[in-house]
# Entry
Amino acid sequence: MAKKPIIDLKSKNITYEQNNQTIKLLSFKKSNMTLDIAIYEKGEFIKNSNIVFAHLPKSVKSIIKPL
# Structure
């Protein structure tokens, strides 16, 4: 069975703080190693964006890597 190219992370509620913003991981695209994220500031949604896997903190990478 082939691995899924996109992993849904919404139900895992993986978040981290960066520059006074809360970053919530939404999905991980294995094909190009990018993540869709939601950015919150003071609990208020700001925007959706994408980042590369390499820009994640090590503590968050260790949670995602086994998937």
